[in-house]
User: Fold O-phospho-L-seryl-tRNA:Cys-tRNA synthase from Methanosphaerula palustris.
Amino acid sequence: MSIKIQKTFEALFELEEIRGIFREAVPTGLNAEEEAALQKKITELKAIIADLEAGTGTPKVTKIAGTLNVRSREEQYINIHPIQAAGRLTDEARKALISYGDGYSTCDFCRKPFRLDKITRPSIADFHEDLAKWLNMDQARVVPGARRGFQAVTSTLVNKGDSVIVSALAHYTEFLAVEGAGGIVKEVPLNDKNIVTAEATADKIEEVKTETGKLPVLVMIDHYDYQFANEHEITAIGKVAHQYDIPFLYNGAYTVGVQPVDGKKIGADFVVGSGHKSMASVAPSGVLAINDDFAPKTLRTTAMVGDLTKRKFGIKEVELLGCTLMGGTLLSMMASFPTVKERVLHWDEEVKKSNYFIDALLRVEGSKVLSEYPRKHTLTKVDTTGSYDTVAQTHKRRGFFFSDELTAHGIVGEFAGATRTWKLNTYGLNWNQVHYLADAFTEIAEKYELPVQKEKIQPNPV
Assistant:
């Protein structure tokens, strides 16, 4: 870690310790002992700031609580990890986390009816309304990750033995959500380009109807899947679902927060997004948006009464188990929201950056793209068996040579040791970083005498 990054973290930690002094004081102010402790900390902070300014000094803090490493990969490196890119916190989200990190910080001014989406200080109620409007849906709730959105829907609609249509590339959490509700997944097969089509979805619905004697109770399809990040025929699939009068869940884990999503235009009855994957939010966080046809059932409130105490719990929503995000998770999402709303308008630019890098990678002979190409997303699955993996076959570090070289260039996020098929994500990188990334891959190839073409090579058809 560079000394300036190191000293930045040390300054932040020192400020947190100063904050701790105020937290332990009585409201009337610091006593003499506490004031002395404060002045000592300020002196230490000034020394750290001086080192930060000059780029001098030695590391004084290498662990948090004695065991946790300081996580500095976003400050030290270009991070191309496939699922971390769009979850990087904004500056404002990091500030919100510092301020609202305490467990129940959202509850400072919670009043009747004691429900998260009704809190007005901070403006959580307005945020829920803004989320629904932004996604062009009728109602929205925040949830602990996209998976809990799936779970809320399946627990509402799916009974034991019911069939649910999913993609052959569906995420495992979709499977678990269906299984937890007692349902059975029925997978739509892919075409020769690894795309889920509306026609194949209709065929699968007919197949289920013939086999079981009844229609599936839900169609749940990813806009972009997590394996290839291919774009599927999502709007047409929504139309097919509605032709059969089947509710349609749009899985926007890789779209909500990075590109525009219009739930009504898509034809979605439910829109599920991931805060920590695509909305620059602390994990676990996500969003579930619902149209008015299904809101009364999915957002049903508790009717149960205790047999001894006769207790009732007001308007707590059953599928959400009452309140959901109760602290830094939610406030980080709220703090990032203005940036997220703006950044989705520049999705085309992000895709251009993705294609720029992929074009550079394809100049290294033997490299292929397993995802659809040209890219429509920033997440991509590549195959470097014919390029970088040929070096790994004889290198003493095997596939880890590639990780070593990337790290030496200040690049992290690839699966350690992977030189055959692996995934990467360029989302959020600026053009200087994208150019640097492309040049680094070329330099590594040239170092090991891999042929590099001046013009890009078209990838082999999948």
Notes: The radius of gyration is 25 Å. The chain has three domains: 3-68, 109-326, 346-447. Residues 32-54 form the longest helix (23 residues).
